[in-house]
Amino acid sequence: MIILGIDPALTITGYGVIQARNKDLSLLEAGIISTSAKDETPKRLDKIYRGVLKLIEDTKPQVLVLEKLYAHYNHPTTAYILGQARGVICLAAQTKGVDLAEYAATRVKKAIVGKGLASKAQVQRMVASILGLERLPKYLDVTDALALAISHSYMLKGFKP
């Protein structure tokens, strides 16, 4: 099964594509879709939407995995902006007929590290270890996207390799 994990944001959207075959997980592709803060929001959302459409066309995932939206009351604008980015990603998945799965950040961290309150650095090291990466991904957004994809594979099969 090919799983596409996406960590949405307006500036840097991280993605990671893995293949889950039996108990083996392998990295197929990972990277970012970046937008410029100089551009207006509709243009930035369009770039994310088109980038995700192309990613789906190129990698042909069976499922796209997103983190459930968490909104802190001190930062409502962040949730609003994140919601817009998530919206165009969900639209891209629907347009291409790709199933969508969502998990809370604490559930993903628990699946990857064993602790729901693990740090980003702990998640990054475990993702690299699980996928046998020689170097840590440059962007934490990529690590988070890969963690989403890996977690989904665990939750589908009820196992960890």
Q: What's the short version?
A:
The chain has 161 residues and is α/β, with parallel strands linked by helices. Helices cover 48% and strands 23% of the residues. Strands 3-2-1-4-5 form a five-stranded mixed sheet.
Report on the structure:
- The radius of gyration is 15 Å and the shape is globular.
- β2 and β3 (24-34) form a beta hairpin.
- α1 crosses α2 (76-95) and α4 crosses α5 (140-157).
- It has a 5-stranded mixed β-sheet.
- The protein has 5 helices and 5 strands; from the N terminus they run βββαβαβααα.
- With 161 residues, it is α/β, with parallel strands linked by helices.
- The protein has helices spanning 41-59, 76-95, 105-113, 120-131, 140-157; strands spanning 2-7, 12-21, 24-34, 63-67, 99-103.
- 48% of the residues lie in helices and 23% in strands.
- The longest helix has 20 residues, at 76-95.
- The mean pLDDT is 92.
In terms of topology, how is this protein built?
Layout lengths: L1 E6 L4 E10 L2 E11 L6 H19 L3 E5 L8 H20 L3 E5 L1 H9 L6 H12 L8 H18 L4
Oligomeric state of the chains in view: single chain
Question: Counting H and I runs of at least 4 residues, what is the number of helices?
Answer: 5
Strand order of the largest sheet: 3-2-1-4-5
**Mean pLDDT, as a whole number?**
92
Tell me the Rg in angstroms: 15 Å
- Beta-strand residue fraction: 15-25%
Task: Tell me, briefly, the overall form.
Answer: globular
Q: Low-confidence spans: pLDDT under 50, at least 5 residues? A: none
Number of strands: 5
Q: Class by helix and strand content?
A: alpha/beta
Report the major sheet.
Answer: 5 strands, mixed
Helix content: 40-55%
Which series of helices and strands comes N to C? EEEHEHEHHH
**N/C terminus separation:** 15 Å
